[in-house]
Design a protein that fits this description.
The complex is a heterodimer of chains A (216) and B (221). Chain A is mainly α and 216 residues long. Chain A is built from eight helices and no strands. Chain B has nine helices and no strands. In chain B, helix 2 packs across helix 5 and helix 2 runs antiparallel to helix 7. Classes of the chains: A mainly alpha (216), B mainly alpha (221). At the A-B interface, helix 3, helix 6, helix 7 and helix 8 of A face helix 3, helix 4, helix 8 and helix 9 of B.
Chain lengths: 216, 221
C-alpha cells in the first residue's frame, strides 16, 4: 500500500500544482473584476448599480456547481468554445467576483461618512478621495475577509475535477481507480487541502488582529 | 449565436427538477437539524470546557472547514466502507457528510454567539438564584439565538446550496436532475436557466422566512 502511494506521489504533486494554479488564477482575476465592479456598485450610476447588484445576488444565490455546469456546457451550446480548463476558471472566477464585490462594498460602507465629506470639503477630486482617503482605510477591513475567502477558492477549485481536469481531487480519484486504496488517499488529500487552507486562515486571523489594533 | 430557446423538453422532464428540488430540501433540512444539534452541544461544551476538550473541538471545526466538501463526500461514500463494515445508500451517506460538515460551521456560529452574551445577564441570572442549567436554558441560549440569527440564516442557506454536491455520488437532487436533462435532451441553456431560477427562488423564500423569524425575535427584545 505504502509503496503504491509513494509511486503515485509525483502524479499527485502535478495535480496539486494544478489546484494551486487554478486557485491563483481565480483569486487574481476575481480580485481585479470584483474591485472594479464593487466600486461600480458603490459609486456608479443607477443602471450600473442595478446590474452589479443583480449579477452578485444571482451568482451568490446558486450553487457553484450549477454555475460551473452552466458555463461549461452552456458556452459551447451558444457557439463559444473555451478549453475546459478556462471554462472552469471562468465559472469559479464569476463566483469569486461576486464575493469580492460584497467584501469591497462592506469595507467601503464601514468607513464613516464624515471621512468622505471632509475630503470633499478640502477640495479633493473623486479619484483623490478614493485613492487617498477611502481606499487606504477600507483596505484594512477588506483584507482579512478576503484572505479568508481565498480558502473558499482553493476548496472550490476541487470542483474542476468534475470537468475532467486533473487537479489534486481528480488525481486522487485516478490513483484510487488504479490502487483501490480509497481511505489512505482521501485522507492524504484532505490533509494537503487542510495544510494549505489552514495556513491561509491563520494568516487572515493574524492580519485581522493586527488591523484591529490600528483601528481608531 | 444561433441558439433558439426551446423549453418544451424541460417541461416534459420537469418532474426530474421538481422531485430533485424536494430531495435537495429534504437533504438540507435533515442535515441542518443534525448539524444544529452537533453545533449547539459542542459550542456549549466548548465555552465551559478545559483545554483538552477545546483543542479536540477546535481540531474538528478547523479540519472540516478547511477541506473541500466534495472530498468529504467521496471520503464518506467511497472511503469509509472500505475500512469499516458498513453499508449505506448514497443519500444516507450524503446526509451523514453534510451533518458533520454543517456541525463544524454551526459550532463556530453558536460559539461566537455564546461569547457575545453580556456578562451582566449571567450575573443577573445568578443573582435571582437560577441554577447553572436554568441559566443556560432561560438566559444564555435565548440571548445567544437572538444574536446569532442573522449569521445562522446565512449558514442555513449556504448549506442548502451545498446539497448540489450530492449529485457527484448520484443522489437524484436538483443539480443531478439538471445534469440528467442536460445529457439526455441537450437543452443545455434552458435547463440551467430553469435550475438557476429554482435555486434562487427557493433560496429567497428561505431567506424571507428566516428574516421573519429574526424580526419576531428582535421585537421580543
Amino acid at each position: 500500500m505504502a509503496s503504491q502511494i509513494l509511486y503515485a506521489l509525483p502524479f499527485l504533486a502535478k495535480g496539486f500544482a494544478l489546484t494551486l494554479w487554478v486557485s491563483l488564477l481565480v483569486v487574481t482575476l476575481s480580485l481585479v473584476a470584483g474591485v472594479l465592479l464593487g466600486v461600480g456598485l458603490v459609486y456608479g450610476p443607477a443602471p450600473l448599480r442595478w446590474a452589479v447588484r443583480i449579477f452578485s445576488d444571482t451568482i451568490r444565490g446558486i450553487p457553484i456547481l450549477v454555475l460551473m455546469f452552466f458555463v461549461y456546457y452552456g458556452l459551447p451550446a451558444v457557439g463559444l468554445h473555451l478549453p475546459s480548463f478556462w471554462a472552469a476558471v471562468l465559472a469559479l472566477t464569476l463566483f469569486k467576483t461576486a464575493q469580492v464585490i460584497e467584501y469591497l462594498r462592506g469595507a467601503v460602507a464601514s468607513i464613516p461618512k464624515g471621512q468622505s465629506e471632509a475630503a470633499m470639503a478640502i477640495g479633493l477630486t473623486f479619484r483623490q478621495r478614493l485613492t487617498s482617503v477611502i481606499f487606504p482605510q477600507a483596505f484594512r477591513r477588506f483584507l482579512p475577509p478576503w484572505i479568508n475567502g481565498v480558502t473558499d477558492a482553493v476548496k472550490g477549485s476541487a470542483l474542476v475535477s468534475l470537468l475532467g481536469i486533473t487537479d489534486l481531487m481528480q488525481a486522487i480519484n485516478q490513483v484510487i481507480g488504479r490502487t483501490y486504496e480509497a481511505m489512505p488517499l482521501y485522507i492524504l488529500g484532505a490533509l494537503i487541502y487542510f495544510a494549505v487552507n489552514y495556513a491561509l486562515s491563520l494568516a487572515s486571523r493574524r492580519l485581522e488582529r493586527r488591523f484591529a489594533f490600528i483601528r481608531e | 449565436m444561433g441558439y433558439a430557446l426551446n423549453f418544451n423538453l424541460i417541461w416534459r422532464h420537469f418532474d426530474k427538477l421538481w422531485g430533485g428540488l424536494l430531495l435537495s430540501l429534504e437533504l438540507a433540512v435533515i442535515s441542518i437539524a443534525i448539524g444544529t444539534v452537533i453545533g449547539l452541544v459542542l459550542a456549549v461544551w466548548y465555552v465551559s470546557a478545559g483545554r483538552v476538550v477545546r483543542a479536540i473541538i477546535a481540531a474538528y471545526v478547523e479540519f472540516i472547514r478547511n477541506v473541500p466538501l466534495i472530498l468529504l463526500v467521496y471520503l464518506v461514500f467511497y472511503g469509509v466502507p472500505t475500512v469499516v463494515d458498513l453499508a449505506y445508500s448514497a443519500p444516507t451517506s450524503f446526509v451523514l457528510t453534510l451533518s458533520v460538515y454543517s456541525g463544524a460551521y454551526l459550532v463556530e456560529v453558536f460559539r461566537s454567539g455564546l461569547e457575545a452574551v453580556p456578562r451582566g445577564q449571567l450575573d443577573a441570572g445568578k443573582a435571582i438564584g437560577l441554577t447553572p442549567w436554568q441559566r443556560l436554558i432561560h438566559v444564555r441560549l435565548p440571548t445567544m439565538l437572538r444574536i446569532t440569527l442573522p449569521a445562522l440564516s446565512n449558514t442555513f442557506i449556504s448549506l442548502f446550496k451545498d446539497t448540489s454536491i450530492a449529485s457527484v455520488i448520484s443522489v437524484p437532487e436538483l443539480t443531478f436532475g439538471a445534469q440528467w436533462i442536460n445529457f439526455n435532451t441537450f437543452r443545455i441553456v434552458e435547463v440551467y436557466l430553469v435550475t438557476t431560477a429554482m435555486y434562487l427562488v427557493t433560496g429567497y423564500i428561505l431567506l424571507f422566512g428566516l428574516r421573519l423569524v429574526e424580526r419576531r425575535f428582535r421585537a421580543a427584545r
